[in-house]
């Protein structure tokens, strides 16, 4: 074994002395001097960041050779690709905290070797949990940036797939990679993303959601302006369209931009289904979102201001259901909406099996008890339950949270001005969406500005034969996916 700071140890080289001084208060920082080696050497590293197996198998046997005379020969001797020769103290400190070990041979050497041997404690690739699909690939991103890049490159094995890496965070030193396909992606989009990332001044970035909020065009908007995904197949697809993707080390989600509002209601599973079925499901989701936002405010507005709009056959049932309810419609609706939100939040924070039980049993018990206690009507209970169910159809979790929030302002406007208030709230929402952008691109495209070509894969999904062009709003340098005319001229083998 080595001796740790033995009395017979010679004076340390300047670089080792500087590093020992900088890390002297680190209880997990180790410095060894091997005086019995053919060429005595110093080795320094953070023991909880280094894989000891790699040290004993690849590093130590190869630096203890008679032929090793200078520090520069370590690159040829040690079978590890990432070896850096440097004398920059700041770079040495950074690398030692990133899974590198430092080796120095002679006191007179002004440089040292930094050998990468990190301890990998990452989970293996698993099926998607948030964007689960019945058909299609069953792989999801993990917290390792290198693993995530590998999953993407397997699907796009082309030299034009470019990766730009930056390090952000004064404390966290987080690695962030920006991916795009050269020759397809608009250079303006890439420059915008890189510039906004480099302009970030924040001490730590734990997850990609930090980045999504910081580089958003409008940080005060409740709407997400970058699409996050955990599916490698979706990332490969959007890269081929000309979009830009951001990966954050330590996050299992990738950020896609620029994006549009309609993409948040499109599941990637739609492309694995027949286009008739996919179109039906997309239209169903849009209807569910509108229903989830408007149905409860319309109920409050009608019962508060517009009794004449209720059909005579339904009026009797409404009067009967509300006969023993002492609360006005607005308080009744807010009570039920908050109850649903509490059950949803409790189910999400508890362990999976317990959360499912709370959601089912709690909803049944509380709903039944509220009706029997006369705190709410059974009609509104059904409406709120359907509204909550409709909000679950949104494929992207961040957008479903936004829908949950904006229902409450609609309720307030409905109480103040009835159906006119609902219309006014809808106009405010539409105005906000019209002004919203994603990396400088219109958020409501292809609805506004109207682009007929992009409507082929928006609210509906036409067959792949109709998607010969890439989305116009991306301004791709190569807008054509395939030559539609030549594709139609080709015959099947049996024709």
From TrEMBL:
Protein's membrane topology: Multi-pass membrane protein
Subcellular location: Cell membrane; Membrane
Transmembrane segments: 283-305, 355-373, 379-398, 410-434
Keywords for this protein: Membrane, Transmembrane, Transmembrane helix
InterPro entries in the record: Spore_Ger, UPF0353/GerABKA_families
Membership in a protein family: Belongs to the GerABKA family.
Name under which the protein is recorded: Spore germination protein
Organism encoding this protein: Litchfieldia luteola
